[in-house]
């Protein structure tokens, strides 16, 4: 079915739309919006996504499904362990600077294999071979930070890594930083719970207020 909702234009509106979609997914009442032939045809020459979702590549973390989205709703970037590099930053800057997306989502999840591998490497002092080593090296600061805070469970480390990744996006990109400072964009970190299907807010950078003095998320 096609969604009658207008495209969110503020960070708060975009966040509210994602929350509503995730609520539907959790309750088993997904609407599967914007997945029909007219929607497909309308997007041939243009796109106007309302969020960019930067998440882990895990097969259980399909962004359009867990937020009940359709064609043209989200600009999606995925790497194992939501690890950033120049290509990721360029993709996120394109979504904000060219497409005008008002919300960047950093999406981690329970039992992340990349974070688990990093924890094992930190615990044993043994690094994996090949390019997996690069993933581990980039996640290691988050694992060490979690350990310094007395956290030893992988899922707690996932939350720390999600928070740190969101912060680094703003620190490493002048374009994203300026968009957040101007109020035209915001960055949220979400931790997805595999069993429940819930995407929990763990960090936010920027203005997510509704404009009526109430927060868009608790």
From TrEMBL:
SMART domains recorded: Pro_CA (SM00947)
Entry keyword annotation includes Lyase: yes
EC number: 4.2.1.1
Swiss-Prot/TrEMBL keywords: Lyase, Zinc
Enzyme class: lyase
InterPro entries assigned: Carbonic_anhydrase (IPR001765), Carbonic_anhydrase_CS (IPR015892), Carbonic_anhydrase_sf (IPR036874)
Catalysed transformations (reactions): hydrogencarbonate + H(+) = CO2 + H2O
Pfam families named among the record's database cross-references: Pro_CA (PF00484)
Biological role stated in the UniProt entry: Catalyzes the reversible hydration of carbon dioxide to form bicarbonate.
Family assignment from sequence similarity: Belongs to the beta-class carbonic anhydrase family.
Protein name: carbonic anhydrase
């Amino acid at each position: 079915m096609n969604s009658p909702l207008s495209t969110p234009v503020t960070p708060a509106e975009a966040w509210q739309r994602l929350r509503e979609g995730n609520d539907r997914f959790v309750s088993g009442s997904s609407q599967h919006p914007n997945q029909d032939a007219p929607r497909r045809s309308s997007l041939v020459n243009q796109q106007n996504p309302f969020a960019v979702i930067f998440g882990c590549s895990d097969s259980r973390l399909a962004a359009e499904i867990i937020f009940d989205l359709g064609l043209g709703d989200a600009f999606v970037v995925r790497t194992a362990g939501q690890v950033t590099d120049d290509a990721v930053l360029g993709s996120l800057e394109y979504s904000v600077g060219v497409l005008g997306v008002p919300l960047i989502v950093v999406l981690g999840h329970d039992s992340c294999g990349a974070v688990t591998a990093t924890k094992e490497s930190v615990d044993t002092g043994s690094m994996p071979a090949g390019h997996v080593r690069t993933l581990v090296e980039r996640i290691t600061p988050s694992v060490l930070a979690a350990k310094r805070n007395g956290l030893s469970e992988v899922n707690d480390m996932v939350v720390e890594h999600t928070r740190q990744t969101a912060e680094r996006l703003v620190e490493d990109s002048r374009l994203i930083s300026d968009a957040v400072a101007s109020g035209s964009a915001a960055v949220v970190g979400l931790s997805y719970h595999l069993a429940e299907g819930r995407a929990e807010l763990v960090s936010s950078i920027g203005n997510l207020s509704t404009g009526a003095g109430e927060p868009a998320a608790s």
